[in-house]
Design a protein that fits this description.
- GO terms for molecular function: ATP binding; nicotinate-nucleotide adenylyltransferase activity.
- Catalyzes the reversible adenylation of nicotinate mononucleotide (NaMN) to nicotinic acid adenine dinucleotide (NaAD).
- It catalyses: nicotinate beta-D-ribonucleotide + ATP + H(+) = deamido-NAD(+) + diphosphate.
- Keywords: ATP-binding, NAD, Nucleotide-binding, Nucleotidyltransferase, Pyridine nucleotide biosynthesis, Transferase.
- Pfam families: CTP_transf_like.
- The protein is α/β, with parallel strands linked by helices and 192 residues long.
- It contains seven helices and six strands; from the N terminus they run βαβαβαβααββαα.
- Strands 3-2-1-4-5-6 form a six-stranded parallel sheet, sandwiched between helices.
- The longest helix is centred in the N-terminal third of the chain and has 13 residues.
- The protein is globular and about 45 Å long.
- Bound molecules: adenosine-5'-triphosphate and nicotinate mononucleotide (NCN).
- The site of nicotinate mononucleotide has 15 residues, from strand 1 and helix 3.
Length: 192
Protein backbone atom coordinates (compact mmCIF):
# COMPACT_ATOMS: atom_id res chain seq x y z
CA UNK A 1 0.00 0.00 0.00
CA UNK A 2 1.25 3.47 -0.93
CA UNK A 3 0.61 6.21 1.60
CA UNK A 4 1.01 9.90 0.77
CA UNK A 5 1.94 11.92 3.84
CA UNK A 6 0.65 15.47 3.86
CA UNK A 7 2.42 17.31 6.69
CA UNK A 8 1.20 20.59 8.09
CA UNK A 9 0.18 22.58 11.11
CA UNK A 10 -3.44 22.70 9.87
CA UNK A 11 -4.26 25.71 12.03
CA UNK A 12 -6.97 25.30 10.76
CA UNK A 13 -7.32 22.77 7.92
CA UNK A 14 -9.13 24.43 4.99
CA UNK A 15 -10.62 23.46 1.63
CA UNK A 16 -7.28 24.18 -0.13
CA UNK A 17 -5.69 21.32 1.82
CA UNK A 18 -8.66 19.03 1.16
CA UNK A 19 -8.81 19.70 -2.58
CA UNK A 20 -5.09 18.95 -2.93
CA UNK A 21 -5.28 15.75 -0.83
CA UNK A 22 -8.38 14.52 -2.63
CA UNK A 23 -6.75 15.24 -6.01
CA UNK A 24 -3.71 13.16 -4.98
CA UNK A 25 -5.94 10.33 -3.73
CA UNK A 26 -7.98 10.24 -6.92
CA UNK A 27 -5.43 11.10 -9.62
CA UNK A 28 -2.15 9.50 -8.53
CA UNK A 29 -1.09 5.98 -7.59
CA UNK A 30 -1.31 6.77 -3.85
CA UNK A 31 -3.84 4.57 -2.03
CA UNK A 32 -4.32 6.75 1.03
CA UNK A 33 -3.40 10.25 2.14
CA UNK A 34 -2.57 10.83 5.80
CA UNK A 35 -2.81 14.39 7.14
CA UNK A 36 0.07 14.45 9.64
CA UNK A 37 -0.69 17.18 12.18
CA UNK A 38 2.66 18.69 13.18
CA UNK A 39 3.04 19.95 16.76
CA UNK A 40 5.99 22.19 15.83
CA UNK A 41 7.27 22.74 12.30
CA UNK A 42 11.06 23.43 12.29
CA UNK A 43 10.70 26.68 10.30
CA UNK A 44 7.53 28.05 11.83
CA UNK A 45 7.09 30.43 14.76
CA UNK A 46 4.14 29.52 16.96
CA UNK A 47 1.64 32.34 16.43
CA UNK A 48 -1.96 31.86 17.55
CA UNK A 49 -1.35 28.11 17.33
CA UNK A 50 -4.20 26.03 18.68
CA UNK A 51 -3.24 23.00 20.71
CA UNK A 52 -2.53 19.68 18.99
CA UNK A 53 -5.82 18.11 20.04
CA UNK A 54 -7.96 20.87 18.53
CA UNK A 55 -6.04 20.92 15.24
CA UNK A 56 -6.35 17.13 15.02
CA UNK A 57 -10.09 17.32 15.80
CA UNK A 58 -10.57 19.69 12.86
CA UNK A 59 -8.64 17.35 10.53
CA UNK A 60 -10.73 14.45 11.82
CA UNK A 61 -13.95 16.33 11.06
CA UNK A 62 -12.72 17.52 7.64
CA UNK A 63 -11.77 14.01 6.47
CA UNK A 64 -14.84 12.17 7.79
CA UNK A 65 -16.61 10.59 4.83
CA UNK A 66 -13.46 10.48 2.63
CA UNK A 67 -12.36 6.83 2.52
CA UNK A 68 -8.83 7.59 1.34
CA UNK A 69 -8.09 10.57 3.61
CA UNK A 70 -6.98 9.96 7.23
CA UNK A 71 -5.90 12.15 10.15
CA UNK A 72 -2.60 11.20 11.80
CA UNK A 73 -1.38 12.12 15.29
CA UNK A 74 1.89 10.24 14.79
CA UNK A 75 4.07 13.30 15.50
CA UNK A 76 2.40 14.08 18.85
CA UNK A 77 4.66 11.57 20.60
CA UNK A 78 7.88 12.46 18.75
CA UNK A 79 10.51 15.06 19.80
CA UNK A 80 9.99 18.69 18.78
CA UNK A 81 10.60 20.48 16.52
CA UNK A 82 9.30 17.76 14.24
CA UNK A 83 11.84 16.91 11.57
CA UNK A 84 10.23 14.99 8.74
CA UNK A 85 13.12 12.52 8.45
CA UNK A 86 12.53 11.39 12.05
CA UNK A 87 8.83 10.86 11.43
CA UNK A 88 9.50 8.93 8.23
CA UNK A 89 12.00 6.66 10.00
CA UNK A 90 9.52 6.03 12.81
CA UNK A 91 6.63 5.31 10.43
CA UNK A 92 8.69 2.98 8.26
CA UNK A 93 9.64 0.93 11.34
CA UNK A 94 6.05 0.86 12.59
CA UNK A 95 4.57 -0.07 9.20
CA UNK A 96 7.32 -1.96 7.31
CA UNK A 97 4.93 -3.13 4.58
CA UNK A 98 3.73 0.34 3.62
CA UNK A 99 5.49 2.62 1.17
CA UNK A 100 5.51 6.22 2.38
CA UNK A 101 5.68 9.16 -0.03
CA UNK A 102 5.61 12.88 0.74
CA UNK A 103 3.12 15.37 -0.63
CA UNK A 104 4.28 18.96 -0.80
CA UNK A 105 3.62 22.23 -2.55
CA UNK A 106 6.19 23.77 -4.86
CA UNK A 107 6.79 26.40 -2.15
CA UNK A 108 8.15 23.70 0.13
CA UNK A 109 10.24 22.15 -2.66
CA UNK A 110 12.02 25.53 -2.91
CA UNK A 111 13.32 25.12 0.66
CA UNK A 112 13.80 21.36 0.65
CA UNK A 113 17.60 21.76 0.54
CA UNK A 114 17.36 23.27 4.06
CA UNK A 115 15.47 20.31 5.54
CA UNK A 116 17.26 17.94 7.89
CA UNK A 117 18.79 15.00 5.92
CA UNK A 118 16.86 15.87 2.75
CA UNK A 119 19.20 13.66 0.70
CA UNK A 120 18.21 10.67 2.82
CA UNK A 121 14.52 11.55 2.46
CA UNK A 122 14.92 11.54 -1.34
CA UNK A 123 16.91 8.33 -1.28
CA UNK A 124 14.13 6.42 0.44
CA UNK A 125 10.89 8.19 -0.50
CA UNK A 126 9.07 9.61 -3.49
CA UNK A 127 7.84 13.21 -3.44
CA UNK A 128 4.56 14.27 -5.03
CA UNK A 129 4.72 17.99 -5.72
CA UNK A 130 1.71 20.14 -6.61
CA UNK A 131 1.90 23.67 -8.06
CA UNK A 132 1.75 26.60 -5.65
CA UNK A 133 2.40 30.29 -6.32
CA UNK A 134 5.42 31.45 -4.31
CA UNK A 135 8.65 33.43 -4.38
CA UNK A 136 12.04 31.84 -5.07
CA UNK A 137 13.27 29.04 -7.28
CA UNK A 138 13.59 25.29 -7.05
CA UNK A 139 17.26 24.24 -6.80
CA UNK A 140 18.60 22.68 -10.02
CA UNK A 141 19.54 19.50 -8.12
CA UNK A 142 15.78 18.80 -7.90
CA UNK A 143 15.10 19.29 -11.65
CA UNK A 144 14.30 16.00 -13.39
CA UNK A 145 14.90 14.12 -10.13
CA UNK A 146 13.72 10.51 -10.49
CA UNK A 147 11.99 10.58 -7.09
CA UNK A 148 10.20 13.93 -7.57
CA UNK A 149 6.85 13.74 -9.36
CA UNK A 150 4.96 16.86 -10.38
CA UNK A 151 1.19 16.44 -10.15
CA UNK A 152 -1.08 18.92 -11.95
CA UNK A 153 -3.40 19.58 -9.01
CA UNK A 154 -5.40 22.83 -8.98
CA UNK A 155 -3.78 25.97 -7.53
CA UNK A 156 -5.69 26.97 -4.39
CA UNK A 157 -4.52 30.23 -2.92
CA UNK A 158 -6.12 30.05 0.52
CA UNK A 159 -4.04 30.13 3.69
CA UNK A 160 -4.75 29.34 7.31
CA UNK A 161 -3.14 32.68 8.21
CA UNK A 162 -5.68 34.55 6.06
CA UNK A 163 -8.53 32.58 7.65
CA UNK A 164 -7.31 33.30 11.20
CA UNK A 165 -6.88 37.02 10.48
CA UNK A 166 -10.29 37.24 8.83
CA UNK A 167 -12.02 35.59 11.80
CA UNK A 168 -10.31 38.08 14.11
CA UNK A 169 -11.75 40.93 12.03
CA UNK A 170 -15.23 39.38 12.19
CA UNK A 171 -15.33 38.43 8.49
CA UNK A 172 -17.29 35.49 7.09
CA UNK A 173 -14.83 32.68 6.24
CA UNK A 174 -17.33 29.85 5.84
CA UNK A 175 -16.71 29.10 2.10
CA UNK A 176 -13.04 28.38 2.86
CA UNK A 177 -13.74 25.67 5.46
CA UNK A 178 -15.68 22.40 5.58
CA UNK A 179 -18.93 23.14 7.48
CA UNK A 180 -18.01 20.76 10.31
CA UNK A 181 -14.70 22.60 10.81
CA UNK A 182 -16.36 26.01 10.78
CA UNK A 183 -18.93 24.81 13.34
CA UNK A 184 -16.14 23.65 15.68
CA UNK A 185 -14.21 26.94 15.34
CA UNK A 186 -17.41 28.90 15.97
CA UNK A 187 -18.54 26.83 18.97
CA UNK A 188 -15.08 26.98 20.55
CA UNK A 189 -14.63 30.73 19.83
CA UNK A 190 -11.25 30.04 18.19
CA UNK A 191 -9.10 32.77 16.59
CA UNK A 192 -11.32 35.69 17.75
N1 LIG B 1 -4.14 26.70 -0.40
C1 LIG B 1 -3.21 25.76 -0.40
N2 LIG B 1 -3.00 25.04 -1.50
C2 LIG B 1 -2.07 24.12 -1.51
N3 LIG B 1 -1.25 23.83 -0.49
C3 LIG B 1 -1.41 24.49 0.63
C4 LIG B 1 -2.40 25.50 0.74
N4 LIG B 1 -2.33 26.02 1.98
C5 LIG B 1 -1.34 25.36 2.58
N5 LIG B 1 -0.78 24.45 1.80
C6 LIG B 1 0.31 23.54 2.10
O1 LIG B 1 -0.21 22.56 2.95
C7 LIG B 1 0.76 22.14 3.92
C8 LIG B 1 0.19 22.31 5.28
O2 LIG B 1 -0.25 23.59 5.44
P1 LIG B 1 -0.06 24.44 6.74
O3 LIG B 1 -1.27 24.28 7.56
O4 LIG B 1 1.22 24.14 7.43
O5 LIG B 1 0.10 25.81 6.00
P2 LIG B 1 -0.78 27.07 5.68
O6 LIG B 1 -2.20 26.79 5.33
O7 LIG B 1 0.05 27.82 4.66
O8 LIG B 1 -0.77 27.72 7.09
P3 LIG B 1 -0.31 29.12 7.67
O9 LIG B 1 -1.05 30.15 6.87
O10 LIG B 1 -0.75 28.99 9.09
O11 LIG B 1 1.18 29.20 7.48
C9 LIG B 1 1.99 23.02 3.67
O12 LIG B 1 2.90 22.22 2.94
C10 LIG B 1 1.49 24.18 2.82
O13 LIG B 1 2.48 24.60 1.90
O1 LIG C 1 12.35 18.15 8.38
C1 LIG C 1 12.59 19.35 8.19
O2 LIG C 1 13.74 19.82 8.29
C2 LIG C 1 11.41 20.26 7.85
C3 LIG C 1 11.59 21.62 7.68
C4 LIG C 1 10.48 22.41 7.38
C5 LIG C 1 9.22 21.85 7.25
N1 LIG C 1 9.06 20.51 7.43
C6 LIG C 1 7.72 19.87 7.30
O3 LIG C 1 6.96 20.49 6.31
C7 LIG C 1 5.67 20.81 6.79
C8 LIG C 1 5.18 22.09 6.18
O4 LIG C 1 6.01 23.10 6.62
P1 LIG C 1 5.46 24.58 6.86
O5 LIG C 1 6.56 25.27 7.62
O6 LIG C 1 5.22 25.13 5.49
O7 LIG C 1 4.19 24.43 7.66
C9 LIG C 1 5.81 20.88 8.30
O8 LIG C 1 4.65 20.50 8.93
C10 LIG C 1 6.96 19.94 8.59
O9 LIG C 1 6.44 18.67 8.83
C11 LIG C 1 10.13 19.73 7.72
Amino acid sequence: MKIGLYFGTFNPIHIGHLIIANHMAEHSDLDQIWFVVTPQSPFKVKTSMLNNHDRLEMVYRATEGYDKLRPSAIEFGLPQPNYTINTLTYLQEKYPKYEFALIMGEDNLKSLHKWKNYELILENHHLYVYPRLSEGVVETQFDQHPKIHHVAAPIMEISSTFIRKSIKKGKNVQPMLPASVWNYIDEMHFYR
